Amino acid sequence: MKFTIYQASRQGGRKSNQDRVAYSYSRDTLLMAVADGMGGHMHGEIAAQLCVQTLTSHFQQQAKPRLAEPRDFLAKTIEQAHFAINDYAVEHNLLEIPHTTCVAALIQDNTAYWAHVGDSRLYYFSGGQLKARTEDHTAVARMIRDGLIDEEEALHHPDRNKVSNCLGGYIVPEIELSVPQAIRDTDTFLLCTDGVWASLGLQEISAILHAYDLEDAVRHLMDHAEFRGGESGDNLSLVAMTWGEPRHPGVEAISTLSLPEHGYTTLINNPRTDQPYQNISDEEIEKAILEIQSTIRKLSK
């Protein structure tokens, strides 16, 4: 496999960053994931961390070097993340079960598979044109589909941030899976939280991804979204990937040919802050991450 990939996450105007972003790849398979811990619930960052760590941990265990059933992997592992969040809440006597959205994608054999829960989005561009986009699991998105409001009105609707489907809680999430999609060189995927897409129009996202090399495109997307969000802006996070050889000269793609059969590389964004959400200290977050890893190991047995 050969691809170019970058991820980024910023706090925006919030007290802490509850988003988590990750990617992991073996010799034959690439995983990308974004989770947005829901700010209306305590410990949203824990739910998001559990989500991306469950996905990457199970990927590392099963992609050796490829997955037998990519769609099944996404469905089962995202569901396991949901139960891991609930188990964590019970084991630690949390007053409220943490919640998070999730969007994840797999690339294997020049074919893309993706799944999502909530309003974190995936955009798939080919030849500079949008080929596919996930549909938000929100009441406002349903109003758009029913023709009650348009996309512009949705951006200012008072219920625009109310998610109807998420990980964590008493209701098992409805995991929406894509159909397998054959991809080709220079196709680009963007996975992002609503802190990014709510501030940027589709044409702007497409133009930036097409005009710049991927590293600069990610920086421009984040800069524009953060500026427009202002002092009260949401956390904003994304992972962007271009398949095959880079479109722009001087950009070096990642090649997985040198990885051993059971080898893998993983990068998880773990933002830190001087103003932790709900007064959670850095030490407490670090301890929670270690406990998350222990929870994942238990579920993997």
Average per-residue pLDDT, rounded, comes to 88
Strand content: 15-25%
Structural class: alpha+beta
Query: Main sheet, how many strands, which sense, barrel?
Result: 7 strands, antiparallel
Briefly note the CATH topology name: Phosphatase 2c, domain 1
**What number of domains?**
1
From the spread of the alpha carbons, the general shape counts as globular
CATH superfamily: PPM-type phosphatase domain
Q: What is the total tally of β strands?
A: 13
How does this model look, in words?
There is one protein chain. With 301 residues, the protein is an alpha+beta fold. It has one domain: 4-Layer Sandwich (Phosphatase 2c, domain 1), CATH 3.60.40.10. The chain is built from 8 helices and 13 strands. The chain has helices spanning 44-62, 70-91, 139-145, 151-154, 194-197, 202-211, 214-229, 282-300, and strands spanning 2-10, 19-25, 29-36, 102-108, 111-117, 121-126, 129-133, 176-177, 181-182, 188-192, 236-243, 254-255, 265-269. The strands form 2 sheets. Strands 2, 3, 4, 5, 8, 9 and 13 form a 7-stranded antiparallel β-sheet that branches. The model is unreliable at 273-282 (pLDDT under 50).
What tags apply to this protein structure?
Phosphatase 2c, domain 1, globular, 301 residues, 34% helix, alpha+beta, six-stranded antiparallel sheet
Summarize the structure.
With 301 residues, this protein is an alpha+beta fold. It is 34% helix and 24% strand.
Helices and strands, with pairings:
Blueprint: E1 2-10, E2 19-25, E3 29-36, H1 44-62, H2 70-91, E4 102-108, E5 111-117, E6 121-126, E7 129-133, H3 139-145, H4 151-154, E8 176-177, E9 181-182, E10 188-192, H5 194-197, H6 202-211, H7 214-229, E11 236-243, E12 254-255, E13 265-269, H8 282-300
Antiparallel strand pairs: 1-11, 1-12, 2-3, 2-13, 3-4, 4-5, 5-8, 5-9, 6-7, 6-10, 10-11
Helix pairs in contact: 1-2, 1-8, 2-8, 6-7
